[in-house]
Amino acid sequence: MSKKRKLKAEIPSDISDKVEETLKPFMLSMKKLREISSRFTKEMDNGLDKKKHQKAAVKMLPTFVRAKPDGSERGDFLALDLGGTNFRVLHIRVEDKKILKVDSQICAIPQEIMQGTGHELFDHLAKCLGEFLESQKLKEQKLPLGFTFSFPCEQTEIDKSILIRWTKGFSCSGVEGKDVVQLLKDAIHKRGDYDISSVVMVNDTVATMMSCNQQEHEDPDCEIGMIIGTGTNACYMEDMKNVKRCEETEGQMCINTEWGGFGDKSPLSDPGALDDILTDFDKEVDETSINPGVHIFEKMISGMYLGEIVRLVLVELTNNNLLFEGKVTVRLDTKHTFETKHMSFIEGARVDQEVIDTIQDLLKVRCSEDDARVVSLVCDTISSRSAHLCAAALAAIANRIRLNKAKDNLKTAVGVDGTVYKKHPNFRHKLEDAVAFLAPECDLKFYISEDGSGKGAAMVTAVAQRQPHSRLMNGNGEEDR
């Protein structure tokens, strides 16, 4: 008997039936998931199309990474990983598809620099990079550098990326709308005490995929990268003939799907592709977020929002006298008090006194054993929907790769990162089982990424040294310069 069935059997039937009625909109049939997978395929087509791209909900951004590691990559590479209040500098040695050496240093970014000028930020990055090169006795070498810059950007070439907007507490002036690669190069050249041979812009999802291509495991090669943590995204290797925004038609390019936008309303998707499965709880999460109407798919499946969906369901059940003696405490009624990590703990444990105490301490409620079972059932239902929706989109990507290869059956691998996948006790298994059901012709192996933003960035940089460079075409079919 599954844990969900066991929980239902142990909850008094008069309560269980009413709880299930509240949870029913979260329970998606495999038929509905196949339908959602087909919708995602259509959104992918829109994003890849030269004329429809601007209006597409799923942007399908070219990354200008044209190949996976083939074993010929060797040499020394630098990586700079900026995505928060700290950043990392790494020196990585690659040989025969393996990373033989990794040295790294973590540098802090003071608040005054995070909110200062762009020149101050990039001067700080260049200073810390110089100090690291000095400590590694590398200042006299001109090495290529992979730059993982985890902020919203429009990438137009492998070495050109325009910052759209700052997030994560950064507000440096004079950077939005500018090429961050050029700003880094300018700061390095201004110092004059060291130089780098080239800078490659690296998306974190692409780095996740690449890091799994250099890990020691049997074939197949990794052709998909996926992050399912606080946020979510995926990338995959697409045939160039389908990337209508680039003029080349031979070979492949890695596409950053930006699948978090699946379900957003757009001129091509109105109503949104997920409107028919949005619950009232999803709508409330979206309406009270900092970006209403944006990244609907991400709000249904990622770690930043799952706990809040659970909390809203618990409030509804309590208001209906099905939980906690019908008493909604201030704590239970406060946004974001219930987090995804709490779901992971509750779902991974037997309903015992420790779980009851955890719920009571967290929400300041009186929690009975039956209440704890209901909370566990709610958590299981919400995380299951997340895994199943993720599987629907992933199945669409896998089937696309299979059709591109004109194969009846496909064997490929997915490189994965993110706390939901790695730390939730059941998510991984539910995801993999659902993908196998939704894409039976695709045999997917899943590998957890080892330091994608560091090692993966170095592998992207290594591959870029031997690949032809591509550029986006503008609306007239000409290359952007």
From TrEMBL:
GO terms for cellular component: cytosol; mitochondrion. Pathway: Carbohydrate metabolism; hexose metabolism; Carbohydrate degradation; glycolysis; D-glyceraldehyde 3-phosphate and glycerone phosphate from D-glucose: step 1/4. It is an enzyme of class 2 (transferase). Its EC number is 2.7.1.-. GO terms for biological process: glucose metabolic process; glycolytic process; intracellular glucose homeostasis. Residues 19-213 form the Hexokinase N-terminal domain. It catalyses: a D-hexose + ATP = a D-hexose 6-phosphate + ADP + H(+); D-glucose + ATP = D-glucose 6-phosphate + ADP + H(+). The keyword Nucleotide-binding applies. It comes from the Eukaryota. Keywords: ATP-binding, Glycolysis, Kinase, Nucleotide-binding, Transferase. The keyword Transferase applies. Belongs to the hexokinase family. This is Phosphotransferase. It comes from Nothobranchius furzeri.
